[in-house]
Specification:
Blueprint (H helix, E strand, L loop, with lengths): L1 H14 L3 H11 L1 H24 L2 H4 L26 H37 L1 H16 L2 H11 L5 H11 L2 H14 L3 H8 L4 H12 L1 H25 L10 H6 L4 H6 L5 H25 L7
Helix pairs in contact: 2-15, 3-5, 3-15, 5-6, 5-8, 5-9, 5-12, 7-8, 12-15
């Protein structure tokens, strides 16, 4: 009898779905999220492939007054702007720049925030107090205004400067989230047992606690990616993002500030606006599916 009970328990444990299986199941149930995920992969791969293989950025940004506000069709598939520059090329390169910047900021802030959060949550004490006061400082200051100031005072800033400035202020949210979860995990029995067995802190933090936070981190980093795309395009729209010589989605949308362009030359700003809308909606649907995968109470039955 006891053997039968043990066999049933083993069978139940072996039949428990893995995190990847749960993730695949959630995307299969939510067709919109699956379509959004596939579309995002295709679009991201496409813009990078098209930019590096078919577009010369120097010739793309060359002014041609003969093609000023050329209508869609003919020489330019999506028309041209006031400088006679191809809108489709700027859209592709601008999307590549926005996605690259968002990925870079998400990775930098994610890695740094996760490390700080894990260390604070695991060790606690004065280390936790020190980093929490630093995080409180970054949260209380007007980070958006400081980003604009930094971008303004740097004479010739590039994408790298922009990524580093943004990353300086955007790691605190991930650090706070990971710290709260690590605090809870560090008090569990498996952590205490590992300490008793003499396992090093490094192994406990990165091989035992971190894997248990993976589902939450995937959701957090996905939503951060969407937020970083929005911040980059927003700053470029205001004129404090990428340099004018670098194509950007926000710069294309900012042309709509001119009433004449807004009413008569819709092809200048509308494609970039629709692309940003598509990106935000797709990432949001993917993020919802990831969140349901991480939380059993929200899963689709």
């Amino acid at each position: 009898m006891a053997k039968k009970v043990k066999r049933k328990k083993r069978k139940h444990l072996s039949s428990s779905p893995t995190a990847l299986q749960i993730l695949i199941r959630e995307f299969k149930k939510d067709k919109l999220a699956l379509f959004s995920l596939l579309s995002l992969v295709v679009v991201m791969f496409g813009v990078f492939f098209w930019t590096y293989n078919f577009i010369d950025q120097e010739s793309l940004m060359r002014i041609s007054l003969q093609d000023r506000y050329a209508e869609p069709g003919g020489k330019f598939l999506l028309g041209a702007d006031q400088g006679g520059k191809d809108i489709l090329g700027q859209l592709i390169v601008g999307a590549k720049n926005s996605i690259f910047i968002a990925i870079a900021i998400t990775l930098i802030t994610g890695v740094f925030g996760i490390m700080v959060g894990l260390i604070c949550g695991y060790y606690g004490g004065w280390i936790d107090n020190l980093f929490m006061r630093i995080i409180d400082f970054f949260i209380t200051i007007p980070s958006l205004m400081l980003i604009i100031v930094f971008v303004t005072i740097i004479p010739k800033y590039t994408e790298i400067h922009f990524i580093l400035i943004m990353s300086l202020f955007l790691w605190t949210g991930t650090a706070r989230l990971v710290r709260s979860k690590a605090l809870s995990e560090s008090k569990r029995d498996y952590v205490k047992a590992s300490k008793t067995l003499g396992t090093s802190d490094f192994v406990i933090i990165f091989r035992e606690i971190l894997p248990n936070l993976s589902s939450i981190l995937i959701v957090e980093l996905t939503l951060n990616f969407a937020g970083n795309v929005g911040i980059e395009t927003g700053l470029s729209y205001l004129g404090f993002g990428l340099p004018k010589s670098t194509p950007s989605l926000g710069t294309l949308v900012s042309y709509a500030n001119n009433p004449l362009v807004l009413q008569q030359y819709w092809w200048v700003w509308l494609p970039a606006s629709l692309f940003i809308l598509f990106m935000m909606l797709a990432i949001n649907y993917v993020g919802q599916a990831l969140r349901r995968s991480a939380d059993a109470r929200q899963r689709i039955s």
